[in-house]
Design goal:
This protein is of the alpha/beta class and 639 residues long. It is built from 23 helices and 17 strands. The longest helix is centred in the N-terminal third of the chain and has 23 residues. Its cofactor is [4Fe-4S] cluster.
Length: 639
């Protein structure tokens, strides 16, 4: 029977991030409201953490642990029980401090007498150099004599990580603050691992999420629930939420979408997924959602759904329905809304002392997109065939700043993280000029390409408009490999662009890669030397090395012969399809080299070892770098 009226509840499932709402539900809720549809939203990722990491939550953890045989308790779990009273007394104040509601607690935290300190605090024990004025204290290096709030936030984050370790060792080995139960979903050809996990009795984490789901249903009384799963680490919890919804009221319609679905479930044929949900939609959700709403209201047949998987009740087989209709133009999707999300309860954590690296976990940023898709869309490692990359569409600077002003009015927050694949230089220039024309003061950061359009003049304009940081892909710092991967930049160009940002007072983070097809040990050593010189010259302040993964949607995955590799055959797939193994004739052990790269990078971000030979970071003998000693400084002089 068609629904006479519809209330839509969009849910962020565990886990995404704790310092700010993941933006997908804000976009969908804002869009639906702009079309006159009753729409609300909930962040159950944050709610789950706030419930587990509370005085009551820790008491529930202790109750479970005390029911375990003593021989099954790890030393960390035993220490938690022994010092439970201290944890119970400190957890609520620490959470209030991390939420910015009790700043004076910083002084007690910094005393090192207030918090119980577990193994995570071992990272603070370092060799004391008698010539080091800080006495070898990494917190003194990072925060100096002042910086009490940041020092306390870092200590409180270590405390939270200790408690997460207890939860993982005693109750749920899959628990993570970000990648929760990720292995159950990521590139899983079969639904079996998820089906088995969902069939097991609920543990404390599951029970808590179940109760939170029922409370959200009671609060909002929806008849359509949208579950947004941006990452593999949100799939298990999303399906647990769907399970709870169907147990409470089978008539509630549940739809699944988001980045993970758009990337990995494009060839979905697993009917068991539909034991928990009713629809799966692909790519930008606005158009499929409008079609689904019309279907539920009896205004559209099921055959006219857009980019939607359904399970055929008669045959038991999954069908993909895609009635040809254009997407909603990017400048017509409306303004995201955070209404209904507890924006004052998010947690500002400080995992990494590096000032650029902390932006991902510290501070509540309004997430916004300058343009849909990527204007470059040529990089051979990227999923350039998928809609979120291939369909490039921008909004005018006027529309963007209108959205920015509306969001500031709603949230009271003027910090923005532009979450584009790569924000276009032309659009950023227009945005900066419009912000200045309106005399609107904001702080913003986002992802770019290190291309020559970012001149010193443009970088200064962006800084004047409120830009505090940029992130961008240097990938493998090798001109040969950058050309092979069609990155469209060179190492010396990256040096000049990043230097221009730094000189304008903008922090720079470089995404780095290793293990790209045909990458040799010499390439790897040379790349690290380039990175060392970039840090040494002050061009970049932060970075992250990730292992190259070949995906079926990338040019490497679709034309491997052009990159000198052979793909391994995939197993029979009914669920997730994304990663694909390959044989590289170079035969390099990239995993072993990756340990050295990450060790070096961690030290470089803390200003350590920048004047030393890069070969010192490798456990095995590696060739001498073939990079000219002053390559980066010469590139900057030629600017």
């Amino acid at each position: 029977m068609p629904l006479s009226s519809i209330r839509v509840l969009s849910i962020i499932p565990p886990m995404t991030q704790l310092n700010t709402p993941y933006p997908s539900t804000a976009y969908l809720t804002g869009f639906l409201r702009s079309r006159g549809i009753d729409a609300v939203q909930e962040d159950l990722a944050l709610a789950l953490v706030l419930q587990l990491f509370s005085r009551a939550g820790l008491a529930a953890m202790r109750k479970v642990i005390e029911a375990m045989p003593a021989r099954q308790r790890t030393p960390l779990v035993a220490e938690f029980v022994t010092h439970f009273d201290r944890y119970a007394a400190t957890i609520d104040p620490v959470m209030a401090f991390l939420q910015g509601r009790d700043s004076t607690l910083a002084y007690r935290i910094c005393s090192r007498q207030f918090l119980p300190e577990g193994p995570r605090f071992d990272s603070l024990e370092v060799y004391v150099d008698p010539d080091d004025p800080t006495g070898g204290d990494p917190l003194a290096w990072a925060f100096g004599a002042l910086g009490v709030q940041d020092r306390a936030r870092h200590l409180a984050t270590l405390y939270m990580n200790d408690l997460a370790d207890v939860l993982r060792e005693a109750i749920d080995p899959r628990f993570e603050f970000v990648r929760y139960a990720e292995s159950l979903a990521q590139a899983q050809p079969s639904f079996d691992p998820l089906a088995e996990a969902l069939a097991t009795p609920r543990n404390l984490v599951d029970d808590t999420l179940h109760a939170l789901t029922l409370a959200a249903l009671a609060r909002h009384q929806p008849n359509l629930v949208l579950l947004s799963v941006p990452f593999p680490g949100a799939v298990y919890a999303a399906l647990r939420i769907a399970q709870s919804i169907k147990q409470a009221d089978p008539s509630i319609v549940v739809s699944l979408g988001g980045g993970f679905v758009n990337t990995e479930l494009r060839e979905l044929s697993e009917p068991r997924l539909f034991d928990h949900i009713d629809f799966v939609t692909l790519d930008s959700g606005e158009r499929p959602l409008l079609a689904l709403l019309e279907h539920l209201q009896g205004k559209r047949s099921r055959e006219r759904l857009v980019r939607t998987f359904v399970n055929d009740a008669e045959t038991g087989q999954v069908r993909y329905l895609n009635w040809p209709e254009p997407d909603i133009p990017f400048d017509e999707i409306g303004t995201p809304t955070w209404d209904g999300l507890p924006i004052d309860r998010y947690l500002s954590l400080l995992d990494m002392l590096n000032p650029m690296h902390r932006l991902w976990s510290d501070g509540r940023w309004n997430k916004l997109t300058v343009a849909h898709g990527c204007y470059w869309k040529k990089c051979s490692f990227c999923d350039v065939t998928l809609d979120y990359i291939s369909r490039y569409e921008a909004a005018s600077a006027k529309v963007l700043v209108d959205r920015i002003e509306a969001i500031i009015d709603e949230t009271g927050q003027s910090g923005f993280h532009f979450v584009d694949e790569a924000a276009p230089p032309k659009a950023l220039r227009a945005l900066a000029e419009e912000l200045q024309r309106r005399h609107l003061s904001i702080s913003w950061w986002g992802n770019i390409r290190f291309e020559k359009s970012f001149t010193p003049e443009l970088c200064q304009l962006l800084a004047d408009s409120g830009c505090i940081a940029v992130t961008g892909g240097l990938e493998v710092a090798s001109d040969r490999l950058l050309k092979l991967m069609k990155k469209g930049v060179s190492v010396d160009q990256v040096a000049r662009v990043t230097s221009a940002f730094t000189e304008a007072g903008i922090l720079v983070h470089a995404y780095l890669m290793y293990g790209f097809p045909t990458q040799t040990v010499q390439d790897t050593v040379d790349a690290l030397e380039y990175v060392r010189q970039l840090f040494e010259a002050g061009c970049i302040q932060s970075g992250f090395f990730h292992r190259f993964v070949c995906t079926v949607h990338s040019p490497v995955g679709q034309s491997p012969e052009e990159y000198g590799v052979t793909l391994l055959p995939l197993p029979e797939i009914s669920f997730a399809k994304n990663d694909v193994g390959f044989i590289d004739p170079t035969g390099v052990d990239h995993d072993r080299l990756g340990k050295a790269l990450n060790k070096a990078l961690y030290n470089y971000m803390h200003g350590i070892g920048l004047d030393q030979d890069v070969r010192r970071w490798f456990d095995e003998r590696v060739p001498k770098p073939q990079v000219p000693k002053h390559f980066i400084s010469r590139a900057l002089q030629s600017r």
